[in-house]
Specification:
With 107 residues, the protein is an all-alpha fold. It has 5 helices and no strands. Helix 1 (2-17) packs antiparallel against helix 3 and helix 1 packs antiparallel against helix 5. It is elongated, with a radius of gyration of 14 Å.
């Protein structure tokens, strides 16, 4: 379920990043894509590992880094407030799922 949500986020992110200016496609867009790829990788690693605690913490950190890049995008006016809202809803849903997973592992 989490991996499917991450794939949906990736598809939406791809659509949004097409709207960025050419100069930013190689800078900010690269950082966003790299962070999203790391989120996907960490989700798979956490799913496969027996001891998940540190991997889930790393995943939580990467989600927060993605939020920072998205806030920077709206602050620099590369995206409009509506795209920001939709994008952050996708990220927040994934963040809630990871938070629940972390709580389940701690119990």
């Amino acid at each position: 379920m989490l991996l499917a949500k991450i794939e949906e986020l990736e598809a939406y992110t791809h659509t949004v990043l097409q709207q960025y200016s050419r100069a930013e496609r190689h800078l900010l867009c690269h950082d966003i894509r790299r962070t999203l790829a790391e989120i996907q990788r960490l989700a798979v690693v956490a799913w496969k590992r027996y001891h998940k605690k540190t991997t889930l913490q790393d995943l939580d950190v990467e989600i927060e880094v993605l939020r920072i890049w998205i806030r920077k995008s709206v602050r620099l006016k590369y995206i409009n407030p509506h795209r920001y809202q939709v994008w952050t809803e996708h990220v927040n849903e994934i963040g809630r799922m990871v938070g629940g997973w972390i709580r389940a592992v701690h119990q």
